[in-house]
Structures are given as structure tokens and as C-alpha cells.
Amino acid sequence: MKSVVIKGKQREAVGKKDTKKLRSEGNVPCVLYGGDKPIHFYAPFNEFRKIVYTPSVYLLDVDIDGKVYKAIMQDIQWHPVEEQILHIDFLIVRDDKPIKIEIPVQTNGLAKGIKQGGKLKSNLRKLKVKAFAKDLPDTIEINVEDLALGDSVKVEDLSFKNIEFLDNKSNVVVSVNITRAAMAAMTTDETEEEGTEEKEASETTENS
């Protein structure tokens, strides 16, 4: 998994007044968990654009006054109206401890069902997994070429080395739905087939 650097400064005060001042100056109050004690810090809003305006998920090198911590973003709070991040929680990542994180899903290939008039539907854009940081992929790639009309891929169908999927096993990740056009085509084919069978049966009766 790719890494991104976030540069911040440790907070000297953590009261509401100081928090409000930081936000008014274009900074984002943050907390880094997972160490001996939580570390309160802040960084400019622009530092986070590279991780919040993308579907990708990154391991982060959080640089606080020159000391770097390997971490992941655990929670983010946005202002309900304005484009402003109110707060972000980060969690320290350790090489000897698995972490839980959501990974984006990426589908590859053209499903057979699409050629038959169906429509590919991605039901889950991200999947929650548990793994060591070194084993985390950038995306969960799913090949959909063999999916026909009505077929689907569920969480229980996925198998990736050293990764445990935490979503409900029966949840559908991606499916090929039958559209009205596909149903109409299927109905037409069945009608034509029945007509052919009736014609052949009639000709057989007449010949006998």
C-alpha cells in the first residue's frame, strides 16, 4: 500500500478556545492514538487534501515536529455545511499487530452479462479487512469477466492471501443485474424458440 506524508505540529493547548482558533487559521485539530498516550497535533487543511478527496486509502507517515509515526486515518469529522474538516483521528500502525481498514474495490474485465444486455452494479465500494500493514493492497481487485446475467460475487467468494474480510459473508460486492432490455430479448428468444418447436411439430404431423 502506498504511503503519504502528513506534516503537523504538536498542540500546546487542547481547550475549546485553542481548537476554535486553530480552525479559524485554516488548521485541522487531530489526535494520534495507539501509543503510550494520545498525541494532540494540528496541520493545515491543505495537508489532508491528498487523502480525503480520493477513493484511495493510504498508509500515512505522520510527521509531528520531526518525529514520524506510521499510521492510518481512523475517523474524520466534517462541518455539516462548510467545506471544513473539524477533526481527524489517526491510529499508529505496528508491524507486529494487524489493523482493520476499509480498502476500495476495483472491478476488472467486461462481464459476459453486459454483452447479454445486463448492467454491472457495484454494491460495495469498499470492503473492511483485517491484515498486517505489509500485506495491505491498494485495492481489492475482482475479475468480473465470467459473470453472466444474474450472477454476483459475494464477500464469501473472495480469497486474498493474508487478508481477512470482516463484512458479512453474504453481502453482495458486485452483480450483473437483468435490465428491461435483456428481459425483453430473453422473452423474444423464448417466443421464437417456442414458435420454431410448434412449426417443427406441425410439419412432423403433416408428413405422417
Please provide a written account of the structure:
The chain has helices at 16-24, 49-52, 112-115, 180-207; strands at residues 3-10, 27-33, 39-44, 59-64, 67-78, 85-92, 99-108, 119-122, 126-131, 140-143, 152-154, 164-165, 172-177. The chain has 208 residues and is of the alpha+beta class. The protein folds into two domains: 3-93, Ribosomal Protein L25, Chain P; 101-177, Ribosomal protein L25, C-terminal domain (RNA Polymerase Alpha Subunit, Chain A, domain 2), CATH 2.170.120.20. The strands form three sheets. It has a six-stranded mixed barrel. The protein starts with a strand and ends with a helix.
Fold topology:
Blueprint: E1 3-10, H1 16-24, E2 27-33, E3 39-44, H2 49-52, E4 59-64, E5 67-78, E6 85-92, E7 99-108, H3 112-115, E8 119-122, E9 126-131, E10 140-143, E11 152-154, E12 164-165, E13 172-177, H4 180-207
Parallel strand pairs: 1-4, 2-6, 7-10
Antiparallel strand pairs: 1-3, 2-3, 4-5, 5-6, 7-9, 8-13, 9-12, 11-13
In short:
The chain is an alpha+beta fold and 208 residues long. The chain contains 4 helices and 13 strands. Strands 1-3-2-6-5-4 form a 6-stranded mixed beta barrel. The chain has a 4-stranded mixed β-sheet with strand order 10-7-9-12, with no helix packed on it.
Main attributes of the structure:
208 residues, alpha+beta, Ribosomal Protein L25, Chain P, RNA Polymerase Alpha Subunit, Chain A, domain 2, six-stranded mixed barrel, four-stranded mixed beta sheet, 4 helices, 13 strands, 39% strand, elongated
